[in-house]
Write a structure and sequence with these properties.
By secondary structure, the protein is an alpha/beta fold. 44% of the residues lie in helices and 12% in strands. It has a five-stranded mixed sheet with strand order 3-2-1-4-5, sandwiched between helices. Helix 1 packs across helix 2, helix 2 packs across helix 3 and helix 4 crosses helix 5.
Length: 321
């Protein structure tokens, strides 16, 4: 309707049909049709004629039904397919509301709802009851919020560095598909790192194996880094290397270290996971390093430079559990 109004405005200013079509990016036939409609019905001729098509099919009830469907899977409605297509959404929505719409209408409904096609996130169900989980998270939250000035709290986790690059989305020209050369035989390095819950300081160590020795190394480095702290609280997951006999023995020589274990399978409450996401996004995803040494150098440079960046973006990284 706006386009039709612009056409009439430009024509009334003395522009030719060809000039109007070029200015507005439409075809000349559309300009002629608009002029004819305005000549016949004046201003009413500029309105969208689809208003005479009858009652809107995609009403609020239909839209709410689609909104509920995309939060579930077709499996819950007796279909073998685990993911939605627009055609299947149309079919199931019709079963629920007795309203049948076209593909274009379904696309418009999904767009208006803010629905998107994305990669689902794999999770493992926490083995604790909801009450136990809340109690443990609340204890960690209070530790972070009520931390004395002479104590520190950090989030700890490990990450794998693969020579075979992680493949991720990237911008490409139309008709082009970028290539990422892989070495074929994969090699790995491992990092253990901590993220200071208050100021975003990153402390990390690397190793060729992901074992108790790696975890002990990060604890020893924390002891050295926070020499003046009375106590160092470490929030971490329940990975086996965190509870091994070697770790328990090593902790006898690290009396200032206190471990706080998150509920099982709750990585979203470990704030350092965001750091690993940025590490992969900025360094390892689609990387072009031909050997593990060069890749690890790039990883080390990123981690050494990240602390000031985190400090300026505390709300993204440093929320409490």
């Amino acid at each position: 309707m706006v386009l039709r109004a612009q056409i009439i405005d430009l024509i009334s200013r003395g522009k030719s049909v060809a000039e109007v079509a070029d200015l507005l990016g439409c075809v000349r036939s559309h300009v002629y049709r608009t002029i004819d409609r305005f000549a016949q019905d004046s201003r009413d001729g500029l309105f969208d004629e689809r208003r005479h098509n009858g009652q809107l099919l995609a009403n609020d009830i239909f839209r709410e039904t689609v909104n509920q469907l995309v939060r579930q899977t077709p499996l819950e409605y007796g279909y073998c397919r685990p993911t939605w297509t627009r055609e299947l959404l149309i079919r199931v929505a019709e079963e629920q509301t007795a309203i049948k719409v076209s593909l274009s209408v379904m696309s418009r409904v999904l767009r208006d709802l803010g629905a998107r096609r994305g990669r689902p996130k794999p999770i493992v169900e926490c083995t604790l009851s909801n009450r136990q989980k809340r109690r443990r998270l609340e204890k960690i939250r209070k530790t972070v919020e009520n931390l004395p000035k002479n104590e520190v709290v950090v989030y700890e986790d490990e990450v794998d560095i693969h020579l075979n690059p992680k493949i991720g989305l990237d911008w490409m020209s139309h008709g082009q598909q970028k290539h990422v050369l892989t070495p074929g035989k994969n090699e790995k390095a491992y990092l253990a790192g901590t993220l200071d819950a208050k100021d975003g300081t990153v402390v990390w160590v690397g190793a060729s194996s992901k074992n108790s020795g790696l975890f002990i190394s990060i604890l020893q480095k924390l002891e050295q880094h926070y020499r003046s702290a009375k106590r160092i609280h470490v929030i971490l997951d329940n990975y086996g290397i965190h509870k091994s006999h070697e770790v328990r023995k090593a902790r006898l020589c690290l009396p200032r270290i206190q471990l706080h274990f998150l509920p099982p399978y709750c990585p979203d409450h470990n704030r350092i996971e965001r750091l690993w996401q940025d590490l992969h996004a900025n360094v390892t995803r689609n990387h072009r390093h031909s050997n593990l040494f060069d890749l690890c150098k790039a990883v080390a440079r990123f981690l050494d430079e990240i602390s000031p960046w985190i400090s300026g973006r505390c709300p993204l990284y440093l929320k409490t559990a």
